[in-house]
Amino acid sequence: MRVLVTGVSGFSGSTVARRLASSGHDVVATYRRETDFLAPLRDFARLNLVRTDLIDAGNLVGPFDAIVHTAATSPSPGVDVAMLVRDNIDASFALIEAARRWGTRRVIFFSSLSYYGRIAQDVVDEATPVRDPDTYGASKRIVEQRLAELGGTFSTLALRLPGIVGPGAHRNWLSGVASRLRAGETIRAFHLDRPYNNAAHIEDVAALVQGVLARESWRGFDAAVLGAAGSLTVREIVERLALALDVSAKIEQISPTNTSFTLSSAHAIARYGYQPMEIGALIDRYGREIVG
User: Fold this and answer.
1) What is the pLDDT of residue 216?
2) Quick check: 276 and 229 in contact, CB under 8 A?
3) Which of 137, 111, 98 is nearest to 225 (CA)?
4) Which uninterrupted H or E stretch holds 194?
5) pTM of this prediction?
6) In whole angstroms, how far apart are CA 54 and each of 7, 87, 139, 158, 225?
7) Helices 173-182 and 279-291, interaxial angle, to 10°?
8) Cβ pair 207, 275 in contact under 8 A
């Protein structure tokens, strides 16, 4: 199968591209800027790196049997609304239009839990109501809506992702906690004694992508929430990660700024064969990966 993977200069895209090429797919992997994640992909068998902006996706040489769309701009200092709209909506729409011309039949879209906005229930699944998503979450929602409109053209699976961890993970709660623990800083967190499983390991996500592409094509649009199996309290998460990193944990409870919830991966498990790590095993492995 010829597969286009976008965003391979990022943590998730690089892992997915490498796994698909290793499993025998012919992968065209796009990126917009140079990062350390590209080094392991250079000269990798069955993997062709192409530097491009997805606004210009129509210039890519298709066709592609499937697209795994991981590329996105996340909120960070210096990223304004115009950048989020251009990079996450306009570029995705350009890619979708190119895919229509290529006759692509399968799309896996890396969406986000930010899709839901303010979450006010204990367990999040695909039916969780959407309440006031921020610009980033709204950008994911708009792309999902466009892919759903084209359900007769593409078979699309939108993965609503939590924080993804693994070697090189950054810009999520667990990676931030790991950095602060290693720096000897106090971990200030809320809901310390509430259950938490809001994470997934990149290898589990990549295995799901590989498995989905190997299946008979599903029909129409679908979405799936991904999280770790089981749960630990927030306090247990911090303490276990500190143990894996061989550092001490100083924890301070602060006033909550949002609600506490866990994730149900039941749909992804039952329909797509997702096999999430148990949250404790995930924390242990992530700690080992950081230490090296």
Assistant:
1) 75
2) yes
3) 111
4) none
5) 0.96
6) 9, 8, 15, 19, 26
7) 50
8) yes
* pLDDT tens-digit readout, 142-154: 999 999 999 999 9
How far, in Å, are 182, 186, 238, 280, 285 from residue 243 at the CA level?
Answer: 11, 15, 9, 12, 12
Is 100 within 8 Å of 150 (Cβ atoms)?
yes
Beta-carbon neighbour count of residue 145 at 10 Å? 10
Q: What is the pLDDT of residues 83-116, one digit of tens each?
A: 999 999 999 999 999 999 999 999 999 999 999 9
Is-contact 168 36, C-beta < 8 A? yes
Token pair of 279 as six digits:
């949250």
Question: What local confidence, expressed as pLDDT, does residue 63 receive?
Answer: 97
Enumerate residues 6+ apart whose C-beta is below 8 A from 243.
287
pLDDT of residue 215: 85
Residue 26, H or E segment = strand 26-31
Range list of β-strands (E), 203-269: 221-225, 232-233, 251-253, 262-263
Structure tokens at 165: 């961890």
Question: Where do the domains of the chain lie, and which CATH numbers do they carry?
Answer: 2-164+198-225 (3.40.50.720), 170-197+228-260+277-291 (3.90.25.10)
Q: Tell me if 282 sits within 8 A of 228, measured CB to CB.
A: yes
Q: Which residues of the chain have pLDDT under 70?
A: 217
- Strand 251-253 and strand 163-165: pairing? unpaired
